[in-house]
Amino acid sequence: MIDDGRPIFQQIAEDLERQILDGTLPEESQAPSTNELAAFHRINPATAAKGLNELVASGILYKKRGIGMFVSTGAHDKVLAIRRDDFQREYVEPLLAEARRLGIEQSHLLVMIKGGRV
Fold it and tell me: The pTM is what?
């Protein structure tokens, strides 16, 4: 998992988001601790903490003092909304821009997306 050139803390946060989306980490369940993440991924605990804190800052996780981090109520929907916005920005908008440059009409683009030939 940790090898694609992006910051490790970001990969940790995205992995936890994936677990929230697929139900492995349900809302109100306890998230892995900093030390668990650090040991599992063989990384510095400060790096793991940075990934967790990024999710706390965005309201996806919350801290219970002395107990640990937990998945917030509504985290699944929040992660889904963030991921959909990212998908729009990273994939859909460039696709539409390239289709315009190539003169591909919207109806033809829809046929192509559905796997058909124009």
Answer: 0.82
